[in-house]
Amino acid sequence: MSNRTIPPVLIVVFGASGDLTKRKLVPALFSLYRQGLLPDHYGVLGYARTDSSDDQFRAELREALEEFSNVAPGEAEWREFARHFHYQQGNYDARADFERLAERIKEVDAAHHTESNHLFYLSTPPSVFKPITTLLHEVGLGQENGNGWTRLIVEKPFGRDLASAVDLNQHLRRNFKEDQIYRIDHYLGKETVQNILVFRFGNGIFEPIWNRNYVDHVQITVAESLGVGDRGGYYERAGAIRDMIQNHVMQLVALTAMEPPVAYDAKAVRDQKVNVMRSIRPLEPDEISDRVVRAQYSAGQTGGKSIPGYRETEGVDPHSLTETYVAWRLQIDNWRWKDVPFYVRTGKAMAAKLTEINVVFRQPPLMFFKDFDNDYHIPHNVITLRIQPDESIHLGFDAKRPGPIIDVNPVMMSFSYAETFGKKSAEAYERLLLDALLGDGTLFIRGDEVEVAWDRVNSVLDGWEAEAKANPNLNLPAYRAGSWGPDAADNLLEAEGRYWRNPYHLVKHQ
Ligand code: BG6
What we know:
Elements lengths: L8 E6 L4 H16 L7 E7 L5 H15 L6 H8 L2 E5 L5 H18 L5 E5 L6 H10 L11 E5 L7 H14 L5 E3 L7 H11 L13 E9 L8 H7 L1 H18 L8 H13 L9 H4 E7 L1 E3 L2 E3 L17 E6 L11 E6 L6 E8 L20 E7 L3 E9 L7 E9 H5 L6 H11 L8 H24 L7 E3 L6 H8 L9 H5 L2
Parallel strand pairs: 1-2, 1-4, 2-3, 4-5, 5-6, 7-12, 8-17
Antiparallel strand pairs: 7-13, 8-11, 9-10, 11-12, 13-14, 14-15, 15-16
Helix pairs in contact: 1-2, 1-13, 5-6, 6-14, 9-10, 9-14, 10-14
């Protein structure tokens, strides 16, 4: 991969004065630059409504780098990096401003010899995705006309339900071709997420047992210890199912459950992800309350700090029905996974920040040692893919404790990224920007993928909406901030003789 070379390019960032540009994009570009991965000829043109100049923009980016980059830039290094950055003020829905933008792009192209390769990055609120892309097309910036390539990165959220996602897809495809569109899910930029496919398909020993004959169930946890903080206003309109399940969690399910692709390329990988997502059984309205648990956090302690309950947070309706936690028992109706439940859960203000996939294997057919094993009812043959933090993979099994009697204990074989590879994983945005600049869409979400994920999530959203209409006094169950979620989520598994695997050692660090 290291010999992949980025061609000359101009990156145009819409929403250049926003948080994402400062926190993620510019630090990612700086890191690529420091590693020598950016080409000699490149330019970055920031575009936003705020009045600013090239110099002012550069000064703000320098401050941002001091704050958010792993390494602060040295003086000479900064001067060399900064001279590639430019700024253009304009509205997102004014044709005259886009005509000016087109002129400015020509100038910056010429100044940096970009060969008219353009990457447009929509780092704006989704309300302006449509006007921006319409105008790009209208002023002739969307089409590839033989003079270099044109690509578009679209940030999340991609729609807020199935209908709006379909509508946005149709709109984008009127102005760009599907293979010009790079929809971001930053989880796919995480090293450990990419490793799911290497682990499964780069080895011969796991795949033969990765199916209904050997696997009892799969658990996927995406827990966050922080509450919604000052994002209450945004979160009220999202909720855990839109914010995390439709995108990040569905992606983890797809990578864990998909069939082997015929090759490691954008089409083959995404075809298989879509196939498995289509196999997720949509829920009937009367199944939702049995299969999906939603809840809201109440006041408590997380990360050593007291936080108010969700409903007491600024920007949040005191009667809010927005869920900050979801657990869902998914069923995948295909040959590999029929009758193997996938339990997924995500929540804010939980006991720890933890993203983990646990593939739990069946018990041996005869439990000879059950009298010597205190918790034999909990299966110990588990493959744990720890996505974050402490990126690692563990295989759990039972072993005899040394001594004159049979004493069976669960033990682990473990691989830790930090111990083995030493270096810190690259930031997700670094990898994703690099891939988009190289024209590799494997780690981006295709239009049909977004729609099938929304389709499954929408069945739940519709059910919840109907429930709220039928019951004006509806309240969501609460879980204490700093806990592992509501009792109802424990019951979801316990009713079937199963248990969430909560890594208790992580709680101690809170
Ligand atoms: C974002 C959500 O997509 O993912 C946030 O909007 C969430 O609410 C974040 O906190 C989690 O990402 P990570 O990389 O910290 O697990």
